[in-house]
Amino acid sequence: MDAELKQQFDEMGVEPSGPVLDKCIELAIAYYIDDATEFVEQWMAFSLSHLQGDEPTIANLGEFERKVLQLKREKGGSKKPTHQTKSLQATTSVLDTSSLATYGLVEDEPMMEDYVNESSSALPHTPKASNDRTRPSALKSGVLFSPASFSPQSAKRTPRTSTGTATASTTGRPGDIVDTFGHPKLLAASTWHSQVEQALPVVQKLLHNDSPLTMSNLSYMNDLLYERCEDLHDRLLDIGQALVEKKLGAKGASECSWYPQDRHTLDALHVLHAVGMIHSDDDGPLDAHSALLAVLDTDEKFLALNFSQIKSTSIFPGQVVLAKGFIPRGDTFVVEEIYTDRKLTPPPPIKVDREVQFVVAAGPYTHSTDLFYDRLHDLLKYLKDHRPDVLLLTGPFVDAEHTQVGELAEPFDYFFEKMIAGIMEVVGGNTTVLLVSCQKDAMAPAVYPTPPYTLRKTYPNLHLLADPSLVDLDGITLGVSSTDVLDHLLSHEFATNAGERMHRAINHLFNQGSFYPICPPADENMSYDSHLAQKYAQLKQLPNVLILPSDQRHFIRLVNDCLVINPGRLADNKGGTFARFLVTPTAPTATTKAPNMFNSVACQIQRI
Fold first, then answer.
1. Could you tell me the pTM of the whole model?
2. CA distances from residue 437 to 6, 69, 265, 447 in whole angstroms, order as listed
């Protein structure tokens, strides 16, 4: 716990003294906080809101205990019924946008009830006249994202039970800040509203033959088996060489004994090295008994790995590693150490001449029980009041696995285009909008990497991006993927004494040089094209900011001077969250000559 707390404080730019660190450990034990990340996040939120960002001291920690930890324990002990659920589910006031009203449906729409009534005859009939004169004003103040539907059931909101929707007592209130990162003065001073009305230039950097992935150059699911093997072979050679250079160097590598060797030589060797790719002996998650190592230029298909002599490790299927150990007999490799770190190309310097503000949200954008897109509507309300420089939205927008998507009475792409038209009308022409595709969308090709969406209408400030993408935004390099690679990694890796899980999962991507290094894919429904991935899913240089939406808990991390953000899902059973962050050209209190990412950014994750 000591080392983990110190690491988390270091990532936040705080260097606590020994007594302060001991006090933090004492509080964590007393209040049953096992996760160092959770403790530091709670302290940073308290420090920002009550102490103007002061560093922890013994006195400040005492105040933190009284105002946060004790109060939280007292509230946790009492289970009083809450009466805020109805207010959370109430329909919000809506935006005055005519284009949205053309396809929005209002909750409990009287005209719809006249045409469709379960208790009346099934034959078509003319609706009876109604004296209710509130419909025009309701459309102006109750627009929701709801498509045309074959079934009347999708035109009504599904009643939400206590098990299907989280209450305010468990998720907090809309607008609550649930995670923060960055310099306290930046966080305190920001109005989260851009002062410059000018769209940013966007330059795509993930290219093959100087071209990004598009529908026009898309060719997938026609690669041959030997081509896939060649892709894996090339990847193993490239990353393996980088691992050897980082750990051993040219001179050290020449002095080592390498596998394979003849049987007589193996019996005489006590230590040898091997470069190979991790595989699993079964289809489930990796464990100590199913891990195999595929080594080049060997007669054996795989070496079975024995971890009885290793102190710490973190491996997953498809990972290229440098292993050190010995072979006592047969094809069992007793591992003493596994090296996975290679020399990384650091992020390029940030070159901005003004403060740039971002809002990031990840799909799905509607609840799994209806197609009304309430959460997307709530986000547009926020965007109307807080105009960012950049709005980044990742799919899915029309989830093909949604229970009611089959009831749509219009083509998926038509509904999607109307949705985008409504978003662009609210956002306006001065915010740069980035839409990242997702293979889970009903109107997208079911392949990874996934080409950008296609629209019949173009907007000068709208940029359609592939999954994954790497772009330059006027001096800020931003990487993004809508595929949940973090959840896939963490669910299939084998780790022991390997440190903080999110930190190591992100490092896996960096050291393997790929947006999706798992092989075979962790999701059996994922259509992974190795030939396309070799061209359009490489992560050869670290970006300044990396967006990785995931079903895992939202987070903000600084890993190898790259700001990594999981904004959470905009619509989920825990309430939904999105991220906002800003990047400044200079640090407000920089003490070193080299730019410090912590002093140049401010980031928050907010509940929708």
1. 0.77
2. 38, 42, 53, 11
